[in-house]
Design brief:
The protein is of the alpha/beta class. It contains 13 helices and ten strands. The strands form two sheets. It has an eight-stranded parallel beta sheet with strand order 3-4-5-6-7-8-9-10. It has a two-stranded antiparallel ribbon with strand order 1-2. The mean pLDDT is about 95.
Length: about 290
Amino acid sequence: MKLIKLNNGVEIPEIGLGVFQTKNGEETVNSVKWALEAGYTHIDTAKMYQNEESVAAGIKAAGVKRENVFITSKILPADIILGKTAQGFDETLQKLDSDYVDLMLLHFPMKDEMNIAAYKVLEEYYKAGKARAIGVSNYSNRQLDVILENCEIAPAINQIHIDPTNNAQDRIDYNMSKGVYMETHSGFGGTNRTADVLGNPKIVSIAEKLGKTPAQVVIRWNLQRKCIMLPKSVHQERIISNLEVYDFELSEEDMALIASINDPANSRFAMDPESAYERWAGRLKEQGLL
């Protein structure tokens, strides 16, 4: 597994198992166990996923030492809005049965002042050794600049929606120019769109030419763009297959063909970072919490 050195010197495996929408309990435990047995050393979870405790159980089931697994989690948007970032961080550590995380992200951007306040809490935990690296998720270029201008420690990571139909090249270029590495979530298209991405004729044609699966082609495409990839699966054979991407490379022609799939109209499938607060605040208001 190739490691990428982040802006603070911490190394992160460039492929990790994502567990978004993986059910808490046996499904997550098995997925994590199978991934670690297959050679993964990076698991990406979040408080929102409600499966952090099962991630911990999966690591134990695999018999892998905690220090040999890179664990990413994320602060719940509600905790950011309500000023409970520290409480949320502590709850994550408890569920992961660990005294630190390798990477903690702010899951979604809220109002600028909320983002700044929450990120400064992450800085405190980082300085206390409870996070080896910190960063953000789903942040626009403008929102990233707000953090860079108002906080002490530059984000190590910005995790955003990237897939061949929505390749976000401008955001990748901008983040990388600031020394911030990009992670891709929803790399196969996301909910209800996987078939559109993995079934795209251009992706399929490259996969058939190389004797690889469409998923392997998409993973390789991300890696060659220097993006950290977090493929999600609950099937053991696919978890194993998604790691088998180091015995081939995509040619310049292949990369250009995949680039041609990009359609700016597909940005509608990714939440607008500037309107994320309204979505989450609305939920809190419905619950009488805001």
